Each structure stands twice: as structure tokens, then as C-alpha cells.
């Protein structure tokens, strides 16, 4: 009986065939199979999930950096309630393997539970495999081509209009104003040039509702709790749960009203709402109002919180790196290209990715990544923050140095502020346009003054990290030398 062996080409060869060639049936030059360990054996803190969650919420950067320092590139944390392990990937090859895994092996639809209290569960972010691919393809026209040109023009106009109204001569947190700007941009994405009649009212509700993300109660899975549990939380006013749910109810009513108005108008353009109203299920039925609402609230949340955080961090770094700021100004004045501005944006997103730990992947079929066997039901957490600061990938990774991107394009699997693979952010181009437009407007019109040049630590705001002081900066109108004009 022939014994199966591994041939150099990877196929099985029989003893008889090898013997006929006068060779040993064992390929001694073949690499030894990589040893694997079960994910449950990965190292991690033994502290209770409550303490880990508190540490992560108050100091997310130091929490995750300390874990890698103690446990290496693969470890587990427990920052969810009820407690369960989340397995963290920080190695670029591990992350590439996760991004390129077959669609039926790793799912993201079950990994967004933290934001379901806003978004429901029927939007693109909750779809996997063919359903995700089909919906994504249908939504693409709202983010690219003529729609992107329209949005780009609107972004420039909005940046000019907004910055002109921001107060001068006093230090104040810029993040709330930036967040409002990003909500206006998403209005253009969703409604195009036909915003709902009650847009300003909806805008105020959305921004106020999302302030709940600053609360330590925001990670709670309210939609999965018993009615009694939610009632108890609503009674505890400091949690902010009662106020959040009341605001959500009002915002939902206005969103549904805007859907009905758009549906009744019979207008169909390249705006997201028009595209959504044209989508049908396999049986030919249109998306329900609830399904349309879920897509809209997903982008109202994900499309604003992420970009607002990135722009806020950009101002934090520019206010503390005068040479970088002056180089951006000089390039804008020359007007030939935006090469250095692009490098600045790329570097901001490297050191402060908007979502530092990308939406959890749930394992649906067994998979080995980096010598670790992950089983169905386990959750993988890709740390963009830690990978982007890997000294094996970036020299002086903690240093803010835009020049590192002047002659090098960001790597697909070594620079991942927008995620990767099949579910990479649909609105990445829009976010980059927003960052550039806001930076151009601020640095040409204003000086950025900070009383304290010390680094600003991060704080959690649901799934994003924002400056702990919400980018508290004083803006002063620039004094130009008219003799030089």
C-alpha cells in the first residue's frame, strides 16, 4: 500500500512512484507544518470585564498598548457586558488574512451590536456574503461618479460657510462644530439637493442624540435588554438612557417623514435616498420604510462620527506642529497640487485612525490565522491603532511625520483607517474630501492657538476615539502682510 506524502508541488505522491525515481518518499526539505494553538489559550488580562471596560473607556490608547506590550501581537480582552472574550489582531499579516478570508468564514453583521441602538439591524453593515455584495453594489452610485462630484462641490461650500461662523479669540472644543459640519455633508449624500423641510430640526436632534456616545452607558446593548432592564436604566438619569431614547424617537419620526415625502415626490436622483427607494427584494417588493431608515441612520452615525474625529485630530496635530502647518499653507498658496496636504491627512489617519479597533468579525467556520485556531462563535478585533504604530512597518511610529507618505502610497494592509476587504468603507473618498476641505479652510483663514502644547490623550466615544478635550483650540483670524500681496 502506497503511503501519501507531500510533493514539492503540494500534491500527494505514492511510495511506488518515489521508489521508481530512486528517491526517499519523505521530502526532508519541506517546511514543518506550523503549530497551532486554540484561541482560548491566547494570553490576556484576568481582570473582570467591568474593570477592563472601565480602563478601555477612560484610556483606550494606554489600555490597548499595555496589552500588546504585555502579551504580544495576539491577545484577548474582555470589554463587553455580559463578559466574553474578544481576540485582538495587530500583526499586518494576520490582519491581511482576516480581510481576505472567504465571505462565509468571517462575518461582520453580528459585530456591530454596540451601534444597533441607533441603526437597527437591516442596513449594509449587518449584511454578509451575497446579501452584502448585492446591496453594496446597488449603493455604490451614491458615493462615486457624478454623485461624488456633486458632494465634493457641496463640501467645499459648506466648509467655507461653516468656518466663517466659528467664534474667534476664545478657546473652545471644535469637535461639536466639526460634527455638525459632517452631518451637513451626510445630508447632501442622503438627500442630494432636496433636503427635507424639517432638516434643521432633524440636524439638532441627531447631534444631541449622538452626545450619548460620550456616556459610559453608550456601549450598553439596550435593544437586547429586557423591557424591565431598560426601564431601570431610564430611571437612572445620569446614564442618559432616557434622554437618548426620547431623542431617538423624535429623530426616527422625522426620518420616516422625510422618506414618505421623498417617496411621494417621485423624484429619483443619485442621492442615497433615491437609490434606496429603487431597491427591491428578490420577490420584487421594495425596501420597507424601516429598512430605508436603518441605512440612513447607519450613515448618519458612521459617516459623521468617524470623519469628525479624524478632522478634530488633524487640528490637534496641526496646532502642535507649526512646521507642518506652514508647509500646508505654502502648498495651498502655490496652488499646484495637494501632495503635502494628502500626506498630512494620511499621517493623521495613521496615528489616529477614526475607528482604532475595526468592527468585530464573528467566526462562522474554523480558521487558522497566525498559528491560532479560531472557532465558530468567537470574535476577532482588528486593531488599526496598534498595527499603524508597529515599528516593523513604520520608523518612529509614535512620531507625527507626514513626510513618510510623500513618496509612498499607504499600503492596502498596513494603513487601514477605512477597514479593508469586501467591507471597506464605502464613503472613504468623501471622508478624505471633508478632511482636506476643512484643513484648507482653517489653515488659510485662521491661526490655531493652544495654551498647552502637551500631547492630547484619547477618549472613547462609542466606536471612535476623539481628543479627550474635544480639540479645545482658539481660532484667530490670520493677519496677512498686505505688502506681500
From TrEMBL:
It comes from the Bacteria. The keyword Secreted does not apply. InterPro entries: Cyt_P450, Cyt_P450_E_grp-I, Cyt_P450_sf, Cytochrome_P450_monoxygenase. Keywords: Heme, Iron, Metal-binding. Its cofactor is heme. Signal peptide: none annotated. Residues 8-19 have a biased composition (Gly residues). The keyword Metal-binding applies. GO terms for molecular function: heme binding; iron ion binding; monooxygenase activity; oxidoreductase activity, acting on paired donors, with incorporation or reduction of molecular oxygen. Pfam families: p450 (PF00067). Residues 1-41 are annotated as: Disordered. Heme binds at residue 425. PANTHER family: CYTOCHROME P450 (PTHR24305), CYTOCHROME P450 12A4, MITOCHONDRIAL-RELATED (PTHR24305:SF166). Belongs to the cytochrome P450 family. This is Cytochrome P450.
Amino acid at each position: 500500500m502506497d503511503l501519501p506524502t507531500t510533493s514539492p508541488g503540494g500534491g500527494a505522491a505514492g511510495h511506488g512512484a518515489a521508489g521508481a525515481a530512486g528517491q526517499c518518499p519523505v521530502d526532508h526539505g519541506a517546511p514543518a507544518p506550523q503549530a497551532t494553538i486554540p484561541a482560548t489559550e491566547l494570553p490576556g488580562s484576568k481582570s473582570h470585564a467591568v474593570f477592563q471596560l472601565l480602563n478601555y473607556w477612560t484610556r483606550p490608547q494606554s489600555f490597548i498598548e499595555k496589552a500588546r506590550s504585555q502579551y504580544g501581537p495576539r491577545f484577548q480582552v474582555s470589554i463587553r457586558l455580559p463578559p466574553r472574550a474578544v481576540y485582538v489582531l495587530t500583526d499586518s499579516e494576520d490582519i491581511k488574512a482576516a480581510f481576505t478570508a472567504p465571505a462565509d468564514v468571517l462575518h461582520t453583521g453580528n459585530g456591530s451590536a454596540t451601534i444597533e441602538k441607533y441603526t437597527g439591524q437591516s442596513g449594509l453593515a449587518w449584511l454578509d456574503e451575497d446579501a452584502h455584495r448585492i446591496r453594496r453594489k446597488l449603493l455604490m452610485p451614491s458615493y462615486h461618479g457624478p454623485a461624488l462630484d456633486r458632494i465634493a462641490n457641496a463640501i467645499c461650500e459648506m466648509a467655507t460657510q461653516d468656518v466663517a461662523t466659528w467664534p474667534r479669540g476664545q478657546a473652545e472644543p471644535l469637535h461639536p462644530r466639526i460634527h455638525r459640519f459632517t452631518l451637513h455633508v451626510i445630508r447632501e449624500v442622503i438627500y442630494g439637493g432636496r433636503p427635507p423641510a424639517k432638516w434643521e430640526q432633524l440636524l439638532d436632534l441627531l447631534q444631541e442624540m449622538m452626545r450619548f456616545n460620550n456616556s459610559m452607558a453608550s456601549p450598553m446593548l439596550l435593544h437586547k435588554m429586557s423591557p424591565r432592564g431598560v426601564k431601570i436604566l431610564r430611571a437612572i438619569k445620569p446614564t442618559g438612557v432616557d434622554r437618548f431614547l426620547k431623542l431617538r424617537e423624535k429623530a426616527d419620526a422625522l426620518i420616516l417623514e422625510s422618506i414618505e415625502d421623498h417617496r411621494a415626490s417621485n423624484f429619483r436622483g443619485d442621492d442615497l435616498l433615491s437609490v434606496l427607494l429603487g431597491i427591491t427584494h428578490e420577490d420584487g417588493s421594495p425596501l420597507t420604510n424601516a429598512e430605508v431608515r436603518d441605512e440612513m441612520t447607519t450613515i448618519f452615525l458612521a459617516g459623521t462620527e468617524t470623519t469628525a474625529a479624524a478632522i478634530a485630530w488633524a487640528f490637534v496635530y496641526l496646532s502642535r506642529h507649526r512646521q507642518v502647518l506652514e508647509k500646508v499653507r505654502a502648498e495651498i498658496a502655490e496652488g499646484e497640487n495637494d501632495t503635502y496636504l494628502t500626506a498630512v491627512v494620511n499621517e493623521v489617519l495613521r496615528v489616529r485612525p477614526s475607528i482604532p479597533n475595526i468592527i468585530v468579525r464573528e467566526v462562522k467556520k474554523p480558521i487558522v490565522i497566525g498559528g491560532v485556531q479560531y472557532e465558530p462563535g468567537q470574535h476577532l478585533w482588528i486593531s488599526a491603532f496598534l498595527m499603524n504604530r508597529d515599528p516593523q512597518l513604520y520608523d518612529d511610529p509614535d512620531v507625527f511625520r507626514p513626510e513618510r507618505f510623500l513618496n509612498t502610497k499607504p499600503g492596502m494592509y498596513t494603513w487601514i483607517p477605512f477597514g479593508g476587504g469586501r467591507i471597506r468603507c464605502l464613503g472613504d473618498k468623501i471622508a478624505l474630501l471633508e478632511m482636506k476641505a476643512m484643513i484648507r479652510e482653517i489653515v488659510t483663514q485662521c491661526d490655531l492657538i493652544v495654551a498647552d502644547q502637551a500631547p492630547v490623550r484619547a477618549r472613547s466615544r462609542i466606536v471612535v476615539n476623539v481628543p479627550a478635550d474635544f480639540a479645545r483650540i482658539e481660532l484667530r483670524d490670520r493677519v496677512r502682510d498686505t505688502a506681500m500681496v
